[in-house]
Amino acid sequence: MEVERVQAIVSSSLAKDNIPLEFVRPEDEQPAITTFHGPIPDIPVIDINHPDQDHIIHLVGNASRDWGIFQVVNHGIPFDLIQKLQQVGKEFFDLPQEEKEVYAKPPGALTLEGYGSKIGEDVNGKKNWADHLFHKIWPASCINHQFWPKNPPSYRAVNEEYAQEVRKVVDKLFKWLSTGLGLEVDVLKQGVGGEEIEYLMKINYYPPCPRPDLTLGVTSHTDLSAMTVLVPNEVPGLQVFKDGHWIDAKYIPGALIIHIGDQIEILSNGKYKAVLHRTTVDKEKTRMSWPVFLEPPGEFVVGPLPQLVDPQLPPKYKPKKFKDYSYCKFHKLPQDKKRSRMEVEGVQAIVSSSLTEDNIPTEFIRPEDEQPAITTFHGPIPDIPVIDFSDPDQDNIIRLIAKASRDWGIFQVVNHGIPLDLIQTLQLVGKQFFNLPPEEKEVYAKPPSAHTIEGYGSKVGEDVNGKKNWSDHLFHRIWPASCINHQFWPQNPPSYRAVNEEYAQEVRKVVDKLFKWLSIGLGLEADVLKEGAGGEEIEYLMKINYYPPCPRPDLTLGVASHTDLSAMTVLVPNEVPGLQVFKDDHWIDAKYIPGALIVHIGDQIEVSSFSSFNAFYYSFSLNILQRVYINL
Ligand SMILES: O=C(O)CCC(=O)C(=O)O
Ligand SMILES: [Fe+2]
Fold first, then answer.
1. pTM for the predicted model, two decimal places
2. Angle at alpha carbon of residue 416, lines to 412 and 422, rounded to 5°
3. β-pairing, 45-47 with 69-73?
4. pLDDT in tens, 164-177
5. Ligand 1 — pocket residues by CB below 6 A?
6. What is the distance in A from the centroid of ligand 2 to the CA of 434?
7. What is the largest distance, in Å, between two alpha-carbon atoms of the chain?
8. 540-546 and 579-583: which strand pairing?
9. Backbone angles phi, psi at 275, to 5 degrees
């Protein structure tokens, strides 16, 4: 067996209070930090046996608009059938590992069906604390019985019966959802495939986890289905993102949880919302869930319904074959057609051409849990520490730097010795470069598939969820001399080179002091950190970020949240605020201080103070998460 199942990890080797690193989520995803416990309404619960149909339509419509999720009770599926469905699923996962592996998803298979431990690629290389089994249950012509467990023997009959019952509920829901939009009753169902809609059963199996505070069962996502009908077991864990908060779904025995998925959001042109959700796991108990995803056939094209589009409400999504939509979603590609390098437009070019109305390309629109309008904290919180390098008391500077690095991972430095007019000319020559005509900037474009990141470009690496950053950039090394590629240094403006050379010398002096003081602050010899990071061979990589104005700064980010890969980053901003750091569970703004340098502790310092100096394990434990939003 090549892939390790989470269930197998748990039953073998797991130390108490310890989980493999690939399951430990970054702080801004950890449930212990990000779950909301304040007063907030519950996910709507709808009695669908209510005598007044208009009442049901009203509730279903509101829940789908405001929440994208609701629970239904009195849905007509017998309670004992639901219990049998849970029982046979549990019996399958209780089988010996070898017996489950018989149903393993074949490597390289095009379908999702089978037993497995993950789908698609993990963001940041993190794994989900879950195993699963997928198989289609309807229509009959789509069923592959090879993926249906033979054991327990009643597995098949129970799932067949459940398929019939769930179809009846789904038909009612589609009808009500259509009516709720003022459409004929059958429009929504027909719009996602009609009688050819495929019912894909998934069983999620979340074994007990010694550190449920650090990991997730399923990371945050919207379902790519039209709709999902889910039966949970009695162990809570489903969370939905609502009004900027992750909140727990209440367990109601026998209820069905209905998720609006991407295809209904698209079909309704955004009137109904696909719900962003994730799952947490339990320390002692096994959680399980049985979502059925209702999917259009692969070749079926889904796009906004013409009835829901008009000049006031232009189409928000491109019509797309379901198979192309799911391919992009699994591979985290933008949902817009892929473009070749020459067609890739810098963000600056998009802005200066077509962008007039309140309308930005969807690949720049972040999911709600990243949108700055929703997630920026405005309450009372201390500012990022500001440290004055002209303080005659060096010990005090060292104490402040150590404390800021420990508590924040970021600080601002004033009176650092770099002349203000040098900083201003650095800003000016960079601005002059970005003001050149596009053809002239393209001369410095990062060569496609180059090994270096040097050059002019619009994004590094792949974006999570296929989203793009609202920024262009220029990278080039400025030190040591042997590393410099002048091909990536603008010739225009002519003073670009001299100014950057001078800045490199000045910034090195500041960096040397920083390394020395950071070392001493850790109780080390003065040169230990610098030597650990490469000594005289440390490479200084300049990046200029260019964030053009954006008509919807509330929805997009200049740079998505990340920590810097470097040992340390020394940053000069311009006067437009936008840097945010994640501190004590909140995204907070960095204040602009003219002439100050912003110093970030990067991954390499974190690593060296962690691994080489165990005694200082906690010393620089905070590698601050940062992101940049756009200011209009
Ligand atoms: O386990 C749950 O409650 C939700 C699972 C889920 O979101 C999924 O499998 O898509
Ligand atoms: Fe889901």
1. 0.59
2. 105
3. parallel
4. 999 999 999 999 99
5. 202, 204, 218, 223, 230, 232, 238, 277, 279, 289, 291
6. 42
7. 81
8. unpaired
9. -85, 135
Beta bridge partner(s), residue 116: 132
The Å distance, Cα 276 to ligand 1 centre, comes to 11
Instruction: Say what angle helices 420-434 and 496-521 make with each other, to 10 degrees.
Output: 130
Q: Are 112 and 192 in contact (CB under 8 A)?
A: no
Q: What is the Cα–Cα distance from 267 to 398, expressed in whole angstroms?
A: 59
User: H or E element: which one contains 559?
Assistant: strand 559-562
Distance CA 539, CA 566 (A): 9
* Of 326, 332, 65, residue with least CA distance to 198: 326
Q: Provide the token pair at 229.
A: 């009908």
d(CA 599, CA 590) in angstroms, rounded, equals 12
Please state whether 461 falls in left (phi above 0), alpha (psi between -120 and 50) or beta. Answer: left
Residue 604 to residues 147, 462, 557, 622, Cα–Cα distance (Å) = 46, 21, 25, 12
Please state whether beta strands 386-388 and 410-414 pair in parallel, antiparallel, or not at all (unpaired): parallel
Per-residue pLDDT of 400-427, as tens digits, reads 998 898 888 889 999 999 999 999 999 9
This complex has an ipTM of: 0.98
> How many beta carbons lie within 10 A of that of residue 343, not counting itself?
8
Active site residues: 202, 221, 223, 277
